[in-house]
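Issue 218. Parser rejects a valid record. Input:
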Amino acid sequence: MKRIKITYNHSLKLLPLILLLLLSSCYRQEVILEQIPQNTPEGAEIFITGNFNNWDPGDPRYRMQKRNDGSYRIQLPLGAGKLQYKFTRGDWTTVEKNECGYETGNRSLRYGKQETKYDSVWSWGDTEPMNCIQKVVVIDEIPADTPEDTDIYLASSFNGWNPGDYQFVMQKLPDGRYYLNLEKQAECMEYKFTLGNWETVETDPERRDISNRVLCFSGSDTVFVSVNSWKSNRARRLRKITLVIDDLPDGTLEGDPVYAAGSFNNWDPGNKHHRFSSDASGKRSLSLATEEEVITFKITRGSWRSVETTLLGRDIPDRSFFTGQSDTLFLKVERWKDR
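Output the parser choked on:
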């Protein structure tokens, strides 16, 4: 067998050809952000971040250029394969959200499929959503043996399949029907109705288990359903509590959101359904319902970086409250961890 020897000089001559072959397998990719929320701060910088820059939300190399028509563009480096990405205004607190302010999945594109990709952002993590898509679920018929004064709950993929989540209790109309307004968290959701626990979940007329219901947020804004039967009509009884914050630290701004995170919501520090509301005087309150004899919780401004602390900035033990003692609990927050 005759051997061919490639010398150093031959390698240099082949290098341009190798580079040409490599570049010919890569593609150009432009991303254009056509629409951003109307309440985007004036002069804000928009970034794209993804698996191409180790998910750095404020990488100056991936700052998008604003065009005269108000859109933003960026030319990504030559590449191949699949990209995953999101838009931010420089850090993860400002990452894009969906129409109702909920988390969205990663965007994706494949090099070479389309040279220009067009996107829109509906809301940012630190601003209020302005175009929330809602759907109304109406129960127009319930089983005859439904207890008179019981609550009906919606358990779904939106609330971790909690069968007795007070934030998803159906409201009763004067004509006996029940309804609930749902905000879009995902394109579709699966759900069932209960009387507060899985022993009372809805069934078919023979009390056999049924498949999950499916609701998608496209189409009409109201869905009418009927419940055939309950597995059991022994509804649970909830203890209802109102948390009232009498005093907040001086560093709290008027528009700062305040949340309760605890045993009742899997210690989620920024759960939208456990955000305190303000009355005309500015006092903050939150109503809860639970079967637990004791609840434990802390107050935050939406993350564990902003959890309440002592006056000296030290961590505090979890708050505890025996739910049978009173229906109202008054609180004072001494200081925030980040201020």
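Fixed in the parser; the record now loads. The longest helix spans residues 8-24.
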